[in-house]
Design goal:
Layout (H helix, E strand, L loop, with lengths): L4 H27 L14 H8 L3 H15 L6 E2 L1 H26 L9 E3 H9 L10 H17 L6 E3 H8 L8 H12 L7 E2 H6 L15 H14 L6 E2 L1 H8 L6 H13 L7 E2 H6 L1 H5 L19
Antiparallel strand pairs: 1-6, 2-3, 4-5
Length: 311
C-alpha cells in the first residue's frame, strides 16, 4: 500500500504553522498583564536548543551583544520599544521570505519554469503519486481538500496556478490580509471538536492545554486559569459561552493589534529591571535566555551566525 505517513506529518505541520504562530503571539497579550512563573522560559526548538547548548553562556552573551548594537539604531546605548519593534518586524519578514524562497526552490525547476506552480505539481512533489485513489487515506484526502481550498484562495488571478508571490500567501497566510478567512476556517475546523460551528470554553482550553498530558500536576497551572478568565471576559464578546467566527477572527487577528509591538513591550516588561522604560545592554545580557527564546534573535537562529549582526 502507498504510504503517506511522513508526508502527512509534514503537511500537518505546515498547515498548522500559521495558526500556531498566531496562537503563540496572541498569548503575549495576556502575558503583559503580569509576570507569570513561566515567563523566563525560552521558546526554542529542540534542534536549536541543542545547538545553543554547545555554546557557553559567555559566548551566547558575546553574540547577543553584537546584535544589540544593530538594534540600537540611535546608538544611545539603550534599546527602546520602537527599536525592538522595528527589529522584530525585520526578523518576521526575513523568516517568511526565507521560508518562501527555500520552499519554492525545492520544487523541480521544470515545475516552475514559467514562474508558476500547478496544484498537481505541488501535491505530487509534497506527497508523492499514489497508484490509485483507493490507496488514499481519509486523512490524506482531508489534507488534500484543505490544501486545495487554501490554494484557490491564494490564486488571485484564478488561473489554477500560483506565482511565487501567490505561493507565499498559500504557505504563509498570516502574512496576507486576503487569507484571513482561510485562517479562521482552518482554525475553527481544528478546534471545534463537536462540529457545531463554534469554539466553546472547553475546546478553547483543550487546544492549548490537556490535563491528561500532565498527570504530575494536581491542578491547572495559573496561566490556564487566566486563559479561562480571558475567554469569559474578552474572547466571548457576546457572553453566550462560545466564540463564533467573528469572535474567533478577533482572537486570531485582533483589530489594531501589532504582534511585534506586543512582544517588544513583553520583553521590556521582563528585562527592564530599573523601570526606566528602556533596556541597557547589561539588562538584556542578564536576561539573555529570554532574548534567545524571542523573535529578537529569531528564536536563537541569529546567534548561530558567524556574525550575528548580519541581517
Amino acid at each position: 500500500m502507498f504510504s503517506f505517513v511522513v508526508d502527512i506529518e509534514r503537511s500537518s505541520m505546515k498547515l498548522n504553522a500559521a495558526v500556531n504562530i498566531f496562537s503563540c503571539l496572541v498569548m503575549l497579550v495576556s502575558l503583559t498583564a503580569g509576570k507569570h512563573e513561566h515567563e523566563e522560559q525560552p521558546f526554542v526548538g529542540e534542534q536549536m536548543a541543542e545547538e545553543l547548548s554547545s555554546l557557553k553562556p559567555e559566548e551566547i552573551k558575546a553574540k547577543l551583544a553584537i546584535l544589540i548594537r544593530v538594534i540600537d539604531v540611535n546608538e544611545d546605548g539603550f534599546t527602546d520599544a520602537s527599536e525592538l519593534q522595528a527589529h522584530i518586524k525585520r526578523m518576521q519578514k526575513r523568516y517568511i521570505d526565507n521560508d518562501i524562497n527555500n520552499s519554492w526552490n525545492n520544487f523541480d525547476k521544470s515545475m516552475t519554469d514559467d514562474g508558476k506552480l500547478s496544484f498537481k505539481d505541488y501535491t505530487e512533489s509534497l506527497y508523492g503519486q499514489p497508484s490509485s485513489q483507493d490507496e488514499l487515506s481519509d486523512e490524506y484526502k482531508e489534507l488534500l481538500e484543505r490544501d486545495k481550498h487554501r490554494w484557490n484562495k491564494a490564486d488571485i488571478d484564478e488561473d489554477g496556478k500560483l506565482s511565487k508571490e501567490e505561493y507565499g500567501c498559500f504557505l504563509h497566510p498570516e502574512s496576507c490580509p486576503m487569507m484571513a478567512d482561510v485562517i479562521v476556517e482552518e482554525t475553527m475546523k481544528d478546534i471545534d471538536k463537536n462540529g457545531d460551528g463554534f469554539v466553546d470554553l472547553d475546546e478553547y482550553i483543550t487546544d492549548m492545554y490537556r490535563a491528561e498530558d500532565y498527570p504530575e500536576q494536581k491542578e491547572e497551572p495559573e496561566w490556564v486559569k487566566s486563559e479561562r478568565q480571558m475567554f469569559r471576559d474578552h474572547r466571548d464578546k457576546d457572553k453566550d459561552g462560545k466564540m463564533d467566527r467573528e469572535e474567533l477572527k478577533e482572537w486570531l487577528m485582533p483589530t489594531n493589534f501589532d504582534h511585534a509591538e506586543a512582544e517588544s513591550r513583553h520583553l521590556i516588561h521582563i528585562a527592564d529591571d530599573d523601570n526606566d522604560g528602556k533596556l541597557s545592554v547589561e539588562e538584556i545580557l542578564y536576561h539573555y535566555e529570554t532574548f534567545v527564546g524571542s523573535q529578537v534573535t529569531d528564536y536563537g537562529e541569529q546567534l548561530q551566525k558567524h556574525d550575528p549582526a548580519e541581517l
